[in-house]
Amino acid sequence: MSLEFLWYIPNQVTPGHRGEPVTADHNSLDTLSAQAKALEEHGWKGALLGTGWGRPDTITVATALAARTTTFEPLIAIRPGYWRPAHFASAAATLDHLSGGRVRVNIVSGKDDLGAYGETESDQAHRYARTKEFIQVVRKLWTEENVTYRGEHYQVSESTVVPRITPRGDRRHPTLYFGGASEAAERVAATEADVQLFWGEPLEGVRERIERLRALSDELGREHAPLEFGLRVTTFVRDTTEQAWAEAEAKVAEMAKDQGADAQNPFRQTAVGQQRLLDLAVRGEVLDDNLYTAPGKFGGGGAGTTWLVGSPEDVAKSLRKYRDLGITHFVLSDTPYLPEIERQGNQLLPLLRE
Questions:
Q1: By the 8 A CB rule, do 100 and 72 touch?
Q2: Tens digits of per-residue pLDDT, 259-316?
Q3: pTM listed for this prediction
Q4: Are 160 and 147 in contact, with CB atoms under 8 Å apart?
Q5: How many beta carbons lie within 10 A of that of residue 221, not counting itself?
Q6: Strands 4-9 and 327-333, how do they pair?
Q7: Rounded CA separation 107/177 (Å)
Q8: Alpha-carbon distance 83 to 244, whole Å?
Q9: Which residues contact 147 (CB under 8 A, 6 or more apart)?
């Protein structure tokens, strides 16, 4: 089973993300490039670049980082509402060509500030129906020529994207990652995505979702290669178990002092996947061996809602259990980002590759 390990680059206008030191140049090209270069040097495949209105454009950031690195692979989060599919397919194909096949794409369908970028409010069924068509059109444009597509949300006529995506072994086009825990999201993932990303849920919850998605793939007649699975989670690693828990609890105590700060994306709180994470705290502060749920009670959101806490050996043991369920793509992170890229690259990744 081939495993892939990616990180997270914060891509934020506002400094101090999840405890990152507040500096004037936190989002400069030099700072972000230093992180991307450190990822190359310490064994990481690449990094997820988060998206949302009010954040830097991910295609632009990915292009700049690709130009300053040699092997770094940006996992570029994008929202269908921001892009028309042919426009995006062309932009991504161009960057894939210029970077030598280093582009990965994460399709995000959750709510955002739609009116700010010219979209209208839509319900969940509409958003995921649009997302399904978006992925279908983009995949066709990357793999076929003279594409004509007639859908409810998107139409193209005799469309050919250039430059063409260069096949590289089994890779015919950039890998398409996708998230979402609602029924509508899972139906899109089961038929259209290459990789379904989960947040840091307990093992049993991930097992159930993998089984359900595999069954859905069969039921709905998936036409692509089998769906793969990934985990996006905070990994709070220190030299010893005791040190890790002491520092994790101290960090949560600081978060509690700042409770009430506005979430970057307030719409996330209503998402099914986010609510699943927040509900975990009712079951206990620590689930499985070392899945820490307390951050979610004090403002942790998304991948910051639950943390895997411990020594490198503790966290590696937990991640291996997710691997045994079928997880092959890992998107990890902790702050401060640059020191943790180095620490976890040196201490955690070698254990995971044994």
A1: no
A2: 744 444 455 455 787 888 888 888 999 999 999 999 999 877 888 899 999 999 999 9
A3: 0.94
A4: yes
A5: 8
A6: parallel
A7: 6
A8: 42
A9: 137, 140, 141, 156, 158, 159, 160
